[in-house]
Amino acid sequence: MTGPVESFGGRRQAEFPEVADVIGPGAEARAQLTDAVLDRSWLRRTALGLRSGFDFFLFGQADQDNAVSGLDGWLFYRPQFEAWNCEAVDQVRDGLEALRFQSEFAAAGDLPVLFAIAPNKASVERDRVGGRAAREMDACYDQVEADLRRMTREDQTGRLVDHTALLQNLDSPERRFYRYDTHWRPWAALEAFNQLAGHPVYPSGLPLEHPQFETVRQRPDIARRILALPVTEAAEYPVVSPVNWDETEERARFASIVVSHDSFYGSIRDILEARMAAPVLVHQGLPEMPDLSEALAEADLLIVERVERHLHDQFGRWAEVGGEAAIHAWLLERSALAARRCAWDEALDLMPGGTAAEADFRRMENLPAGGMQTRGSNARIHFTPPAEWGDAPVCVRASVTATRDEQSWVFVPGALLSDARYVNGRSLHIPLEEGANEIAFVLPASVAGENLRWDPVRSNRPVTVTALEIAPRFGRSASSQPD
């Protein structure tokens, strides 16, 4: 009855409890043991398959926790509709704004990073969303999709790689998405790779053009893992030829590429490994992956790929980018390096001293020995880069002394989101170590004339700011221009 049965029903298998807990007085561990056994039981899987098969094969319908049927027997992953429903629309828009800010922040410091977006199946196969699937897609789905498409279409940073339009323009549904799976087919995945590899600023690999294909039948995930249905689909897989970088006329521009990805790029790992120069592939959330922090320490280029239904929760979390604290920390480190080359000879000193550029220090006191120290909680510093700096990114650097390890936040205003001008999605979370800290970063040019807010510490413990200044990234002298 039990054995090596993979997880099914769209959920993780229950873990086996400790023996001591099972024989103890409580009933919770014994209930967990029952779930663990049944989750690995052919009996439960067979029962699920019979129930799903009766509904699907007899009536052409499916309606389980994570799977729902559309037109002509097409299956859709239910969470893609739930992620963009009207109850979540404010959170989704905040998350999309966070993605926009991170791309602007990266561009301000010329940071080598791309954010790649894999589309929801429903966004590409819109004409298949009927029947029960249509009831799951409320009006806000189309609104959110329109917002996201507008954001990527109008992007000026060159950091956003949206694969959606490319897939929508493929002439055959047999080249786009599987009928019984939530993922793209190999043909569409190859087109997405070629789009990424041919990026005009950060070409990450050698496109695979005019490959040969071989037909393979496989059991797609929604049917197999969620509904336990015995169905297969044919797919054309490209025959991948690896690049010999020593012999090709093309040269690998980046010696070390880190790709943080989900299951969409996971489906083309063979292409990434064959057509990029020694990439480090880190599948988010999977065990036995390379350590992301260690990989980023050597990275010349970072690619962050996420499916669009997860953009809001992956980019809307504080102190994380793409759901990863290591990526946020890497961006801060690279921005600090970029700030070294700003036009500091044209800097404005924002410390108290009667200058017109003086910052507004709130809930802070001027120390006799110099510096401004926080007083209790909710200390804030407000300052406004000159509007006349125009198109130049704005560099900020400060000296801060903390009594222990702390967290400092810088908020960059944007459009009103969630009824607030300063939100987590448009902020930098800067760690402070006990003792003296030198912090620096580069902000997008759009902050010129805007009132920035810096919370020097999130606790009620005192920290002291002894220096704060801003400068345009590019000054009048040629030496301050980028290479």
Explain this structure.
The chain is of the alpha+beta class and 483 residues long. The protein is 30% helix and 21% strand. The protein has 16 helices and 20 strands. Mean pLDDT is 86; it is low at 1-11 and 478-483.
Features:
globular; alpha+beta; disordered N terminus; disordered C terminus; 483 residues
Concise account of the structure shown:
The chain is 30% helix and 21% strand.
Mean pLDDT over the residues: 86
Structural class: alpha+beta
Cα Rg: 26 Å
- Major beta sheet summary: 6 strands, antiparallel
Estimate what percentage of residues fall within beta strands: 15-25%
Proportion of residues in helical segments:
25-40%
Question: Which stretches of 5+ consecutive residues score pLDDT under 50?
Answer: 1-11, 478-483
What assembly state would you assign to the polypeptide chains in this entry?
A: single chain
Shape: globular
The termini sit apart by 66 Å
Count the beta strands. 20
Tally of DSSP helical segments: 16
